[in-house]
Amino acid sequence: MSNKIPKSVTTVCVGNVCRSPVAEVLLREYTKRSKNSALHKINFDSAGLFGGKLELSDISDEFVKEKGFNLTGFRSKMTTRRYLTQFDQILVMERWHKEYILKHYFCDTTKRKRRKIEGKMKTLSEAAGIDGDIIDPFTIEAEKFRKILNTIDYSCQKIVSQWEKACS
């Protein structure tokens, strides 16, 4: 695989019930559909900065099903230092998530280790080459929530397209 193609990717949001599980399943399924078999080998997961053992939000579940994918039985999980260090790429939804991760999980590590984890982190938007954060839709109306999920979908498609180009 090219250096630009990660072997493992986690997507991270606040509670791991709205955004990151959707990004996880979309990235996984879009890479499976890729004609480039190198992308089929990428491992995907997701987690939240808080919470754990919660079900997927209803709107996220509907969205994933409409795309023809399934997250039945999904339960959220929380990030830890150990969890984060196992991934080649960490895709967060908002810039403050990067700061939070560094402050709460890597504040007592060496500068070298902090730089290494910083180098693994991007927002989903940054990775897709677009501007802005993907805001938390948890408490907003369904129509705006779905727009955020569509942005995640668009971003995931762009990321997979970039990986396909990097492999060719």
UniProtKB/TrEMBL annotation:
Annotated protein name in UniProt: Phosphotyrosine protein phosphatase I domain-containing protein
Signal sequence coordinates: none
Domain Phosphotyrosine protein phosphatase I: 7-162
Organism listed in the record: Candidatus Lokiarchaeum ossiferum
Keyword Ribonucleoprotein: no
UniProt KW keywords: Hydrolase, Protein phosphatase
Organism domain of life: Archaea
PANTHER family named among the record's database cross-references: LOW MOLECULAR WEIGHT PROTEIN TYROSINE PHOSPHATASE, LOW MOLECULAR WEIGHT PROTEIN-TYROSINE-PHOSPHATASE ETP-RELATED
InterPro entries linked to this entry: LMW_PTPase, Ptyr_pPase, Ptyr_pPase_sf, Tyr_phospatase_low_mol_wt
Family of this protein: Belongs to the low molecular weight phosphotyrosine protein phosphatase family.
Pfam entry (one): LMWPc
UniProt xrefs under SMART domains: LMWPc
